[in-house]
Design goal:
With 209 residues, the protein is α/β, with parallel strands linked by helices. It has a single domain, classed as Rossmann fold. It is built from 8 helices and 6 strands; from the N terminus they run E-H-E-H-E-H-E-H-H-E-H-E-H-H. The longest helix is centred in the N-terminal third of the chain and has 13 residues.
Length: 209
């Protein structure tokens, strides 16, 4: 069973990495593929070049088995849609492999506004990473989807390749890439918010100054 976690990773930080590791371990995933997007659809475009964002991601997870940097969106032209990435991944993995799209609860709140959201559920399970004890306040149409798709047993995700929605409690830290970029721009250190190997690339390349 494979996990998929996308993002700008501009830069990658511990708030991305610890939840990815939590899901890897708690869901007994074979791997989590971290996929940096190329062209953002619902957010500002990344500040750092694609090659450096990929290099920072690879440096961040170099010594962690099970976390894999996947450059497929950077290599594909056009907007970076989760649907298209999952179609591409399915062509590689086949139809039988369970795939879990990992999303934060804030991102899931707008899920039905994504590109082909219901087709996403034909391609993968959706795992909503949430802070323990966080409320589950979603719009009525999303609540209706949850009534039909919700799964409470993580082991049941292995019974089918796609189609279910699971809430998974993860460690969440109040860290954002925006804050890290702001600190660097002010000449302040963002150390302990991101791996030292990532900070070293930021310093070497003069990123976010």
């Amino acid at each position: 069973m494979i996990g998929v976690l996308g993002g700008t990773f501009d830069p990658i930080h511990l708030g991305h990495l610890r939840p990815a590791l939590d899901c890897l371990q708690l869901l007994a995933l074979d791997q989590v593929r971290l996929i940096p997007l190329k062209v953002a659809v619902h957010r500002p475009q990344p500040a750092a070049p694609s090659a450096l964002r990929l290099a920072m991601l690879e440096a961040a997870i170099a010594d962690q088995p099970g976390l894999v940097a996947d450059p497929r969106e950077l290599e594909r032209p056009g907007d970076s849609y989760s649907h298209d990435t999952l179609v591409h991944l399915r062509a590689e993995l086949g139809d039988a492999e369970p795939v879990c799209l990992l999303v934060g609860s804030d991102a899931f709140a707008s899920f039905l506004g994504w590109y082909r959201p219901r087709e996403i559920l034909d391609l993968a399970h959706v795992v909503i990473m949430r802070r323990p004890g966080a409320p589950e306040g979603f719009a009525p149409d999303l609540q209706d989807l949850l009534r039909h798709r919700l799964c409470e047993d993580p082991t049941a995700l292995r019974d089918s390749p796609s189609g279910r929605v699971l809430f998974q409690d993860v460690t969440q830290m109040d860290i954002s890439s925006t804050r890290i970029r702001q600190l660097i721009r002010r000449g302040q250190s963002p150390r302990f918010l991101l791996p030292d190997a990532v900070l070293a690339i930021c310093d070497r390349e003069g990123l976010y100054r």
